[in-house]
Specification:
This protein is mainly alpha-helical and 86 residues long. The chain has one domain. 64% of the residues lie in helices and 0% in strands. It contains five helices and no strands. It is elongated. 2% of the residues are buried.
């Protein structure tokens, strides 16, 4: 039954290469979402601060396009700051 729905489960190298190419094309169309952890990494005291600065540089230079921060991430960031500082 599952084979009729999903097809053959044995992949050849060619099929795997085609699947990887397809997935890469799909990923290139997606917009990266900056998580709350990335927002906290913009703090100079954070151990990942240099990575966050490099990420921001790539966004500014348009090497990474259409990066977004969702409203949920902003709310989470604000809630964590409120919990920490009152």
């Amino acid at each position: 039954m599952f084979e009729k729905i999903l097809g053959d489960f044995e992949y050849t190298r060619e099929a795997r290469r085609e699947a990887e190419e397809y997935l890469l094309k799909m990923v290139k169309k997606m917009s990266p979402v900056l998580d709350t952890q990335v927002i906290f990494a913009f703090n100079p005291k954070d151990k990942y601060h240099e990575h966050a600065k490099n990420l921001l540089t790539k966004i500014k230079s348009r090497k990474i396009k259409n990066a977004i921060i969702t409203d949920v991430n902003i709310w989470e960031f604000a809630a964590l700051l409120f919990e920490k500082f009152g």
